[in-house]
Design a protein that fits this description.
The protein is mostly helical. It contains 21 helices and 3 strands. Among the domains are: about 160 residues, no CATH class; about 90 residues, Fusion Protein Consisting Of Minor Coat Protein, Glycine Rich Linker, Tola, And A His Tag, Chain: A, Domain 2.
């Protein structure tokens, strides 16, 4: 009886272990597949690298299990990205970004994929992954340059590898299991083979009907509708708005953001589609509420805002501050570009906050009274720096933060000339001396805005008759 109890306990433990780890992955694989997407910008690349490692070890049962669960459960990472899509990227790239694969790298990818198809002929995941790999292999033959830079042999390999990818996808379509990623493969075939915009749109509609939430389909067509491919001016913008409106509500805005967030669609380059940044921001916020935080989403949102709305840096500053040092290489390319955007957004956000505070103060009755008292001593400082007949002309804006006793706490002068530098240096000296040159403000610190005209100080006085 004791033996029976003991063996029964072991059986229960085995069942519990199996149910908690249905795909029988190792502890190291579990760590790679379950990173914190809300705090770790490399969680996605870690996931894809883990999948690629399992393929290299030919763990076909495990990979089919992971794919089936991701597909049937429509599993998403924090932020809304689909696990299934990341899994296929991990299975179809010869080396991770930004490395450039060699012929040996491609052989090392294609060989286990082909073995997987042979070992498990009913696996739709294996065939789609192999087809996707051939399509990526086609791009490798074409290269990243303009069409005119591609050699005849490059175009020949491009066409052959695309055709092989399509052949494998056609085989996969006959299998009983259907997968939204099949349409991604076919959409890439359509791009490579130069299908008409109408045929590409028809394929998208089939994909959208099969799985409306799989926004990667819309990303590909939005890109293909750009004028550099098959579309006309405004075609991408019209399509993205149309599909988002069809979905409607917050879900539609989330969809709009997820399409715009594709790094290959908006790069901060000439020819980028003119998408609505306001709708993108709203979709981003709605996505965070529904799907949680994603460091990749934060990076894309900060990039989009910094590149498309430089005059309104508040949103970019908030997202960049949340990112900290978790910058995404595929989004920013280089650390210096990320740091430049972060510093500029921080500077501009602070400037706008100061201007807003000063404008708010100057719109109150007490602010207007204080401005009248403040203006006289300030103008005396200006007169010490400006000579009659000086070259400065037009109006300039000056903002000053005043302490509780009338001291200078901070200085902003929006003009660049010898006279403006002189004014700044004199006010800076008064700040260091803690001189009470101005009357005490209504509260402290208190920003005051003056809009001054150089003509008041540079015009020569009229001689008395």
């Amino acid at each position: 009886m004791l033996l029976l109890v003991a063996t029964s306990g072991l059986a229960v433990a085995a069942v519990q272990k199996s149910s908690s780890n249905p795909c029988n992955i190792s502890a190291a694989e579990a760590a790679g597949l379950n990173g914190d997407f809300s705090t770790q910008v490399h969680a996605t690349s870690d996931y894809m690298a883990t999948i690629a490692g399992a393929l290299k070890q030919e763990k076909f049962d495990e990979l089919d299990c992971l794919a089936d669960r991701a597909r049937s459960g429509k599993e998403r990472f924090s932020g809304g990205a689909w696990k299934l899509h990341a899994l296929y990227v991990g299975l179809s790239e010869a080396v991770p970004y930004p490395q450039h694969p060699t012929k040996e790298d491609w052989n090392n990818l294609l060989t286990p994929l082909q073995a997987w198809v042979k070992a498990r002929p009913q696996s739709v995941t294996a065939r789609i992954a192999l087809a996707r790999a051939y399509l990526n292999y086609a791009y490798d033959a074409r290269g990243e340059g303009n069409a005119g830079t591609v050699s005849d042999s490059g175009w020949k390999l491009f066409a052959e590898r695309t055709a092989e990818g399509k052949r494998i996808l056609d085989e996969a379509s006959a299998l009983p299991t259907k997968c939204p990623e099949w349409y991604i493969g076919m959409q890439l075939v359509a791009m490579n083979q130069g299908w008409s915009a109408a045929d590409a749109r028809k394929l998208f509609e089939e994909a959208f009907k099969f799985e409306p939430g799989y926004f990667y389909h819309a990303r590909i067509l939005a890109n293909y509708l750009l004028p550099k491919w098959t579309g006309e001016d405004g075609a991408t913008e019209k399509f993205t708005q149309e599909i988002a409106d069809r979905i409607g509500g917050n879900e539609g805005d989330i969809f709009y953001f997820q399409v715009a967030a594709a790094s290959f669609l908006v790069c901060g380059c000439e020819g980028d589609p003119q998408l609505s940044i306001a709708r993108i921001e709203h979709g981003f916020e709605a996505s965070e509420k529904q799907y949680g935080v994603s460091m990749l989403n934060l990076n894309r949102m900060a990039f989009l805002t910094a590149r498309t709305r430089p005059g309104d840096p508040i949103f970019a500053d908030k997202t960049l501050t949340r990112i900290g040092e978790q910058w995404d290489e595929e989004t920013w390319k280089e650390k210096k570009d990320f740091d430049m955007a972060k510093n500029f957004a921080g500077f501009m956000a602070k400037r706008m906050a100061i201007e807003t505070a000063a404008d708010t103060n100057m719109q109150t009755p007490e602010g207007l009274r204080y401005k009248a008292a403040f203006e006289k001593p300030y103008k005396e400082v200006v007169r010490q720096c400006v000579q009659p007949g000086g070259s400065d002309s037009g109006k300039f804006k000056a903002l000053t933060s005043v302490g509780a006793t009338g001291t200078v706490e901070d200085i902003r002068i929006y003009w660049n000339s010898a006279a403006s530098h002189c004014i700044y240096e004199k006010l800076r000296a008064l700040q260091q001396e803690k001189a009470t040159v101005f009357p005490p403000p209504p509260k402290a610190p208190y920003w005051v805005r003056l809009d001054l005209d150089w003509a008041e100080f540079t015009s020569a006085p009229v001689a008395a008759k």
